[in-house]
């Protein structure tokens, strides 16, 4: 039986250390699949340093790691802005991130659907044409670079729900594009993560796991909030999920809480591999 691979995101280390140190710490802890947050001071995708790219790639290869994806912080860019200049900056930022992902040997570039103003009526309908165009531009760049897109749900984005993502990909001709389904992002909009996983099941490339209190958007340690990880683990086990699972936890003790999260998944009966 092929087991899902459990990996870790460096997001929790963003303010504590540079990417190289986070990678070293995760490798020492036994993780072999990682996802890299591309935001200063952790890792700056806008300031190309060819020597540093070579050092990071050598570090990844020395530890036999799989770099699943490179992420831009949603606070740094916005593909759902009504401003053309803001959208153009976001597209150029993704272009830079795609180049860095190619240099580092990442499997995917993670793309979100921007940050629309939740208080503006009909915001999605008004912003969607601009987003579709921007997404197509990023997709073309990613295809040329050989680093395919993996699309993530985001509670502030135009594609917040599993159904929204599925409809967008089908309508846009991206039916084969994989998806990151973040259970905490889904929980923040009131979506049952088990239902969302079912909707996106054929498209799942990565499942992001973290916890949150009901009604809040957080990425807390597993078991500290209200997300039903027993139900999620049960679904993944029952359906024979064999893709990537990434713990994305923001806390004062990121490595400790990543390891505790792995232990919690085992207690819920989820078997996994750490080999990327």
From TrEMBL:
Alphabetical list of Gene3D superfamilies matching this protein: Divalent-metal-dependent TIM barrel enzymes
Cross-referenced InterPro entries: IolE/XylAMocC-like, Xyl_isomerase-like_sf, Xyl_isomerase-like_TIM-brl
UniProt KW keywords: Isomerase
Isomerase as UniProt keyword: yes
Domain called Xylose isomerase-like TIM barrel: residue spans: 24-267
GO molecular function (one): isomerase activity
Keyword Repeat included in the entry's annotation: no
Pfam families: AP_endonuc_2 (PF01261)
Protein name: Sugar phosphate isomerase/epimerase
Species for this entry: Bradyrhizobium vignae
Lineage: Bacteria, Pseudomonadati, Pseudomonadota, Alphaproteobacteria, Hyphomicrobiales
């Amino acid at each position: 039986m092929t087991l899902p691979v459990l990996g870790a995101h460096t997001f929790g280390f963003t303010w504590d250390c540079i990417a190289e140190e986070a990678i070293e710490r995760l490798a020492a802890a036994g993780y072999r699949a990682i996802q890299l947050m591309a935001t200063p001071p952790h890792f700056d995708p806008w300031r190309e340093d060819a020597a540093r790219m070579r050092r990071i790639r050598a570090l990844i290869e020395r530890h036999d790691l799989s770099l699943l994806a490179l992420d831009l912080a949603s606070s740094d860019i916005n593909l759902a802005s009504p401003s053309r200049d803001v959208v153009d900056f976001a597209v150029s930022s993704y272009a830079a991130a795609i180049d860095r992902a190619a240099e580092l040997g990442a499997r995917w570039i993670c793309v979100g659907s921007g940050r629309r103003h939740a208080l503006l009526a009909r915001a999605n309908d008004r912003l969607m044409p601009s987003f579709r165009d921007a997404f197509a531009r990023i997709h073309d760049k990613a295809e040329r670079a050989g680093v395919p897109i993996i699309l993530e749900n985001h509670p502030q984005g135009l594609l917040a729900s599993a159904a929204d993502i599925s409809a967008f990909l089908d309508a846009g001709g991206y039916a084969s594009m994989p998806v990151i389904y973040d259970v905490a992002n889904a929980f923040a909009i009131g979506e049952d993560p088990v239902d969302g996983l079912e909707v996106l099941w054929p498209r799942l490339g990565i499942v992001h796991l973290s916890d949150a209190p009901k009604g809040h958007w957080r990425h807390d340690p597993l078991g500290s909030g209200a997300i039903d990880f027993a139900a999620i683990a049960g679904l993944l086990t029952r359906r024979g999920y064999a893709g990537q699972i990434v713990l994305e936890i923001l806390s004062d003790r990121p490595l400790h809480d990543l390891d505790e999260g792995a232990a919690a998944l085992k207690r819920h009966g989820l078997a996994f591999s750490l080999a990327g």
